[in-house]
Design brief:
binds tryptophan, 449 residues, 6-stranded antiparallel β-sheet, PH-domain like, Tyrosyl-Transfer RNA Synthetase, 17 helices, 3-stranded parallel β-sheet
Length: 449
């Protein structure tokens, strides 16, 4: 069974070395594993919650897209897209908003932190709190549930959001699933082994501490940043303590075990800090110079990046569009052309607009639905081992010919060459069943234009 992994990157800054080691590099490695189907996207709608500077939003989207590609993410292999290119996401957000308990969102850490701060300062509890911030977890739930992702690699601060996505999914399944789960229940994936890199001053590397090392800027800027790494005042020749040196921690995060063992021995042996910094620079520059060149190339050709991301959005929407359609149906946003009317207005019309919608099950198998012009489900196919097998059967059905339909009290099944290929829904009575059989026949009848 393939596992679907999905994660979003909020586009408000420029990635630094800490982001690279802590998130980007492990994600790129994970995306190459067999048996995973990964989705990476720029969470640019989320960025709007935190930032109202259009230039910064635009710049950051470009830089983050280029960074991930330069770091080796293969857009042919994974699905890489911008959240804001998928209109189904905000639409799903609304469907989910309508089943999300306000009490659940009241408990979100980010919102609570803002309220606590206001209360402490003697302000109105909701001062400066937008509905965007408040509803942040619902938008994130839509990101995840839109693609039925199973595993969500995130930092610890995001675990609560993934749990909320689970809660909201369960509620929707319960209300509208009718025995079938629309949404898989996602789980947060916390990479325990990935180190949080220390910054220049030894605290966690973070833009808010202004202690970052740049990722793909020039070698000179890399060298300058490294020269500002805080060390103790031991002179060259004096033994250094690698275990209490964040310079060593940084070195370790990018070296092989043999390299770091050698570096450790040199430090214990009295290597000067200036020399140690030069070693760290060559190590980092060796790893980053190739990707840096790719990055600069991508930034210089933003139109190419645009094409890559639009192709990614197209790939994502091949899943999102039919799925959202089935969710709209589920909540009652259906065409007014009822099954009865479709039958009345003549076979030709029904045949024209009937369609096959195929989808993948959690276990990796494929099915399709045959939907009538009005979106009513006429048939749900059996599971096929792959998309090709499912496609072959739906193609055969579309070619017309005598249909082997077998009524069974409140439902019917459809057979091809003596094999049952799908079932109808359950009908209230045999009259409704027979009407549905007529609809199915006219949907599959060859068009007579
Ligand atoms: N909220 C996440 C963060 O700040 C970004 C994000 C948005 C995300 N949507 C997501 C992460 C969906 C995982 C899945 O890090």
């Amino acid at each position: 069974m393939t596992t679907r992994i999905l994660t979003g990157i909020t586009t408000t800054g420029t990635p630094h070395l800490g982001n690279y080691a802590g998130a980007i590099r492990p994600a790129v490695v994970a995306s190459r594993q067999p048996g995973v189907d990964s989705f990476y996207f720029l969470a640019d709608y989320h960025a709007l919650i935190k930032c109202d500077d259009p230039l910064r939003i635009q710049r950051s989207r470009l830089e983050i897209a280029a960074t991930w590609l330069a770091a080796g993410l293969d857009p042919e292999r994974v699905t890489f897209y911008r959240q804001s290119d998928i209109p189904e996401i905000p639409e799903l957000t609304w469907l989910l908003t309508c089943v999300s308990a306000k009490g659940l969102l009241n408990r979100a850490h980010a919102y609570k932190a803002s309220v606590d701060k206001n209360v402490e300062a003697g302000e109105d509890p909701d001062a400066g709190v937008t509905m965007g911030l408040y509803s942040y977890p619902v938008l994130m739930a839509a990101d995840i549930l839109m693609f039925n992702a199973h595993k969500i690699p995130v930092g610890r601060d995001q675990i609560q959001h993934v749990e909320m996505a689970r809660d909201i999914a369960q509620r929707f399944n319960h209300l509208f699933g009718n025995g079938k789960d629309f949404f898989a229940l996602p789980e947060a994936l916390i990479e325990e082994s990935v180190a949080t890199l220390p910054g220049l001053d030894g605290r966690k590397m973070s833009k808010s501490y202004d202690n970052t090392i740049p990722l793909f800027s020039s070698p000179k800027e890399l060298k300058d940043a490294i020269s500002r790494i805080v060390t103790d005042s031991r002179a060259p020749g004096e033994a250094k303590d690698p275990d209490n040196s964040h310079l060593f921690t940084l070195y370790q995060a990018f070296s092989t075990p043999a390299q770091s063992a050698a570096f450790r021995a040199e430090l214990l042996d009295g290597l000067g800090w200036g020399e140690a910094k030069a070693r760290l620079f060559s190590l980092l520059d060796a790893e980053l110079s190739g990707p840096r060149e790719i990055y600069q190339g991508l930034i210089a050709r933003p139109a190419d990046l645009e094409d890559i991301l639009l192709a990614g959005a197209q790939k994502a929407r091949r899943i999102a569009t039919p799925f959202l359609e089935s969710l709209r149906e589920a909540v009652g946003l259906r065409s007014f052309r009822s099954a009865v009317q479709a039958a009345d207005t003549g076979k030709k019309k029904a045949a024209k607009a009937a369609r096959f919608v195929s989808f993948r099950e959690d276990d990796g198998s494929f099915r399709f639905r045959l939907l009538a012009a009005d979106g009513e489900q006429l048939l749900l196919s059996h599971a096929f081992p792959d998309g090709k097998a499912a496609g072959a059967v739906s193609k055969q059905l579309q070619q017309g010919g005598e249909l082997d339909i077998r009524p069974e009290s409140d439902r019917f099944s459809l057979w091809l060459d003596g094999v049952c290929v799908g079932e109808s829904p359950v009908y209230a009575d045999t009259a409704a069943r027979d009407l549905a059989i007529e609809n199915l026949k006219s949907a599959l009848a060859p068009q007579q234009d």
